[in-house]
Design a protein that fits this description.
Blueprint lengths: L1 H31 L6 H21 L10 H20 L9 H23 L8 H5 L2 E4 L2 E4 H23 L1 H11 L1 H6 L4 H23 L9 H16 L4 H21 L4 H15 L14
Antiparallel strand pairs: 1-2
Length: 298
């Protein structure tokens, strides 16, 4: 019984983190058809910015409770600036090119962002534990969990709900759906496709940075965290269906519970379990659970 509860809570916490870290990747692919490898760089920028800002803030002796507000602020600034520079400085010249070429370009951007983080923050690890431990712990049937874990779960639900409402209940969201359906027709109708691309990429970069920023208080922020998250995020969106926000959420839940179950039942299979689930899903649904196969133009 205790093991089942531990798997459920840990699975939800891991799923929330994965969703926040991968939703920006699937959003950019859904709109722009770009598999953005640079997403890992945005994640790292958010993590470093958050840890650095929290460290400076707490060093002043200010109330630790307010340090939580620095997390979305760091993600907004770091992701917004980096996303805008990458999209306006590089990607806008590459639109319409082959998708494989775009993967190579974004991979090059990822390598650049990795070096940028080292130039700004060095190679030392940053630890910003204050927000995670300030809120204390809560016991569930005798098992202690940090309250911060549930704040991450709440943040993931809020982000998912916000994206759903924007895409389905607003005029901007409906125009974006038109752009996704057919770029040429959208342009003919007077829709500024370039502007939608720019905004989408920046929003996706901010979401990627948010995933890193909100994770920073629970980990040691060090070089290489961006490479790890891009692999896990890719597994999530492939399982859910590339370009599907709902699919990213379901994929994160599946991966989260698979990972939690393996950790508690058979720890050596922790990493293997994620890719086993991905392989099993793709064997049945080659395009993911919630993505339709696209017609191929010859």
């Amino acid at each position: 019984m205790l093991t089942a509860i531990a798997i459920a809570v840990d699975g939800l916490g891991f799923a929330a983190w994965l969703f926040l870290s991968s939703v920006g990747l699937t959003l950019i692919y859904g709109v722009m058809r770009i598999l953005n490898i640079a997403h890992g760089g945005f994640y790292a920028l958010g993590a470093y910015s958050s840890a650095w800002a929290i460290g400076l803030y707490t060093a002043t002796g200010s109330p630790v409770a307010f340090s939580f507000l620095l997390i979305p602020l760091a993600a907004l600034i770091a992701g917004g600036i980096a996303g805008l520079l990458v999209e306006r400085g590089i990607l806008k010249f590459m639109y319409g090119r082959d998708e494989v070429l775009m993967v190579l370009v974004t991979y090059a951007v990822f390598l650049i962002l990795e070096d940028v983080t080292k130039l700004i923050w060095g190679t030392e690890s940053y630890i910003a534990w204050q927000p995670a431990f300030h809120f204390g712990t809560v016991e569930i049937v005798g098992i202690p969990y940090t309250v911060y874990k549930f704040l991450i779960i709440g943040t993931a639900l809020l982000v998912g709900l916000s994206l759903f409402l924007v895409l389905n209940k607003t005029r901007v969201g409906k125009l974006l759906l038109v752009v996704i359906e057919d770029r040429e027709i959208s342009s003919a109708l007077g829709i500024n496709v370039t502007l939608f691309f720019s905004v989408t990429f920046v929003v996706g970069a901010i979401l990627g940075a948010l995933g890193g920023a909100i994770t920073a208080p629970e980990i040691s922020v060090s070089p290489g965290i961006g490479a790890e998250i891009i692999v896990l995020s890719f597994a999530v969106i492939v399982i859910g269906g590339m370009g599907s926000i709902g699919g990213a959420m379901i994929g994160a839940v599946i991966v989260g519970f698979a990972r939690a179950a393996s950790v508690h039942l058979y720890p050596p299979a922790e990493l293997f379990s994620i890719y086993l689930v991905m392989a099993a899903v793709l064997a049945v649904k080659p395009y993911g659970l919630f993505a339709l196969a696209e017609s191929r133009k010859i």
